[in-house]
Design a protein that fits this description.
mainly alpha, 2 domains
Length: 216
């Protein structure tokens, strides 16, 4: 894949006009939208992409969405939906309000690309240090908020989402095949829990393990 779509040099005029008055002065999204050029840019990722080939989603956009999903504890699918639906995210990403986003699998592929090239520090440690200095990310005792922790957290959340979605798909197939069997054989609580998409994503590490075990 090639990096042919540059990150926007400034926030689109309409996005700034409509969104900026709504953002608190201390909003992390306001800060990122206005100051991201001081932290990372396209040139930090040039050697991760080929000079020719299918255009990739801009890596700065992917890097920022990865940080935002870490801050809000969202798995990949929910993070890509937030990038499309939330105006504060579009402000930070310097996108038009009509922007339709990208597929959630691009986030996973981006993390893999960073890890394969040993470049995760470019995104996470530099950007997280910048946000931590300004009080947007709190230190937890002696625990470092580094690239390994960030990638690990969003990966765990995304695996849990995949498990939930797999159960939901299987349940839907069973209902389509024989709804009377489902009513007789499966507990109502199971159908209620897994019959619709789940959005409880702000989970601790212990809660993630418990939910994964419960789903299994």
């Amino acid at each position: 894949m090639s990096m042919q779509t540059p990150f926007a040099g400034e926030i689109p005029e309409e996005t700034r006009r409509l969104v900026e008055p709504l953002l608190p002065a201390d909003s992390v999204y306001r800060l990122v939208g206005n100051e991201i050029d001081k932290i990372i840019s396209d040139k930090d990722f040039l050697d991760l992409y080929a000079s020719e080939g299918r255009p990739a989603v801009n890596p700065v956009v992917l890097a920022l969405v990865s940080i935002f999903q870490f801050l809000e504890r969202l798995p990949d699918r929910a993070a890509t939906e937030a990038a499309v639906l939330r105006m504060d995210w579009k402000y930070a990403l310097r996108q038009e309000l009509t922007w339709r986003g990208f597929h959630y699998s691009d986030l996973c592929n981006f993390r893999k690309r960073l890890l394969e090239h040993g470049r995760e520090w470019v995104v996470f440690e530099r950007l997280v240090a910048y946000l931590r200095e300004r009080g947007y990310i709190e230190e937890r005792g002696k625990q470092r908020t580094d690239s390994t922790k960030i990638i690990g957290l969003v990966a765990r959340l995304s695996r849990l989402e995949l498990v939930w979605e797999a159960i939901r798909a299987a349940l839907r197939a069973l209902v389509d095949a024989d709804v009377s069997w489902v009513r007789k054989q499966l507990p109502v609580s199971f159908v209620e829990n897994y019959g619709q998409r789940r959005w409880d994503f702000r989970l601790s590490k212990t809660e993630i393990r418990r939910r994964m075990s419960e789903a299994g």
